[in-house]
Amino acid sequence: MSVIVNGFNGFEQFKCVSTFLKDSNHDKSIHGNANLNCGTAIYSNNSVLNLNFNSFPINFKTTFSLSWSYCLSYNGDTLWLFGYVGRKSNCIQNFKLPNGEKINQISCSRRHILCVTETGTCWQYNLETDKWKDLSGILTTEQHQEDTIREVVVKVSCGETITAVLTDKGSVYNMPNKLEMRGEKIVDVSCGRSHILMLSERGEVFSVGEGSRGQLGHGELENEEEPRLVEGLAGLVVVTVVCGGWHSCALTSDGDLYSWGWNMAGQLGLYNRESRGKVSVQAIPQVVDWPDQSEVHVSKVACGARHTVTLLDDGSVWGCGWNGYNQLALVGMDSVDQMTRLPVDGSVRHIVCGPWSTCFIT
User: Fold this and answer.
1) In this structure, how many other beta carbons lie within 10 angstroms of the beta carbon of residue 308?
2) Which residues have a Cβ under 8 Å from the Cβ of 194 and sit 6 or more positions away?
3) Beta bridge partners of 224
4) Sign of the torsion formed by the C-alpha atoms of 320, 321, 323 and 328
5) Which pLDDT belongs to residue 88?
């Protein structure tokens, strides 16, 4: 297994990962494997171009979470933070949860780290105060005076100003408040900078939060304080929802990709020659077409602040949007406003995007 990294490296977050993996003592402590090989990276203008970690033994679904200033990973009961730590760049810090439990899923933003444990406990770490907070007490639903049901956390998602917590009961918390879903059971959540997408078990999509750039998908630019059905996706069976900074994506069971929201850098992939180069807002979900009207089946999608990356079922990787730090691996191109095939070697199995970076996991 390999991890190929492209994008912003202004805090040397990926450079120190590279240094870390080359140290056999660290190799043993984090992975139990002293034979890891780290590929050669090219660093230019605060960017990292194609840093390849060969034979990186990780759980490719949940191990990485990327902020703009640091890279977060975990192994068992230990979190590893690479990059900007304690007002210094190129730092490495490791720490454990206060209760010592093993970690099952992570998500991070500039100020916070959220962890879900194997037992469904949720912890929040504040990078500014260096303090942990157990969020599990907030997630207890009282049904009767003498009867309480504990909700187990199954997923967390961090935005810059908003945090979503999903429980095994299908409840969603826009922390610290529980959202009223009117009987809908939610199976997935994703946070943008200040909005949340929610996927129901019936394949419907709901959104809540800031809507100033059309990211909620309701055909208007108003905020929503309560979850609202995205009617533009009615009749479709959605299987994945993903938020960018101020844009949103939904993947259907037929392998079609829909996008909406802010399109300043072409991150929606909705190429329009007449409006090229202009700031655009698409407030209603629209299907993304591939060049030459090619029929494709999208299997995965990930979003950064202003870029979108997709994996097709034929194994090819495509992307669009802002490429100012080479997060799309398209050297010499500032942005692309239509889906463009990305020059990524290897058989990509998963994609993780940070605000200005991308990890291709093979």
Assistant:
1) 28
2) 159, 160, 161, 162, 209, 210, 246
3) 209
4) negative
5) 87
- By DSSP bridging, strand 195-200 and strand 205-209 are antiparallel
pLDDT higher at 252 or 144:
252
Measured in whole angstroms, how far is the alpha carbon of residue 174 from the centre of its chain? Answer: 17
The alpha carbon of 314 is separated from its chain's Cα centroid by a whole number of angstroms, namely 23
User: Which residue ranges form the domains of the chain, and what is each CATH number?
Assistant: 179-362 (2.130.10.30)
Span 98-127, pLDDT tens digits: 999 999 999 999 999 999 999 999 999 999
Give the model confidence (pLDDT) of 168-183 as tens digits: 999 999 999 999 999 9
The Cα–Cα gap between 345 and 327 comes to 15
**C-alpha to C-alpha distance for 76 and 276, rounded to whole angstroms:** 47
Q: Nearest to residue 324, comparing CAs of 314, 315, 332? A: 332
How many of the other CB atoms lie within 10 Å of CB of 44? 11
Spatial separation of the C-alpha atoms in residues 156 and 112, rounded to whole Å: 12
Indicate whether 59 pLDDT > 80: no
Say if CB 161 and CB 174 are below 8 A apart.
no
Whether cis (ω within 30° of 0) applies to the bond prior to 176 is yes
Q: Determine the residue type at 112.
A: H
Beta bridge partners of 291: none
Distance (Å, whole) CA 183 – CA 23? 52
Q: Which residues 6+ apart lie within 8 Å of 39 measured at CB?
A: 2, 50, 51, 52, 53, 54
Q: Do strands 78-85 and 257-262 pair parallel, antiparallel, or not at all (unpaired)?
A: unpaired
Could you identify the residue written with the tokens 């080479």?
Answer: 326
